[in-house]
Sequence to fold (268 residues):
Amino acid sequence: RISRARPEMRRATKVFEAYRHVRKVSAFGSARTRPEEAAYTAASEFARRMAAAGYMVITGGGDGIMAAAQHGAGRESGFGLNIQLPFEQSANATITGDPKLLTFKYFFTRKLSFVKEADAFAAFAGGFGTIDETFEALTLIQTGKATVMPIVLIDVPGGDYWQQVLYFCEKQLLARRLISEEDLRLFKVTSDLDEAVREVTRFYKTFHSYRYVGRRLSIRLKWRLMAPAVAALNDQFADLFGGTLEQRSALPEEANEEGILHLPRLVG
Fold:
């Protein structure tokens, strides 16, 4: 199984490598959602807005919400990560024949690409697979095994799918102290597409990415901050870093990071 999985991971890495400097959002939801349903329209419109904002959209490559998001993003701005199943699952019409369509034998290799290549997650109503992908992302971010990124759970207006999930998290997980109150801030539930898009784009307004260099955290920024802003961050958050945040150029260990070496850093 390992020998069969490795070529899948290599192939996926090669396809995504050509787009490594483009932001991407992974979109999840039910394959059973029909085109006449409000969730289908919402997924298509959300993906269209994300593509207009310069993002590419990663879907499971199939029908339902996947097809809606694929169509909304358009062929040029979409990736499809299809899965081989005992029953037939064909790729949706938008991504069929595109070199950015990948077909996986194993769910774990597919899930790796969904998480590793994404800068944000958006989930609409779905079944076991959607719940699995969503809580996988939350678990990895909560435990520090994946990069912190925005996760937005999108209901249709008047819908309560994710509101019920949030209710469960509050009344069962949090009430039993199985999670902390801060964990509920790892995601946002909304039925407003403007708010959903803003949740992602605002996250990356100034922030670019981060990397640990030994025990130091290097936060890459799109532009330098004014001195008062750096001072305010030190007042509020320096205790998290065990010292003072310093605005500077890239650390020597980051010299091999082509394309982002020029970005200013906050290092603590």
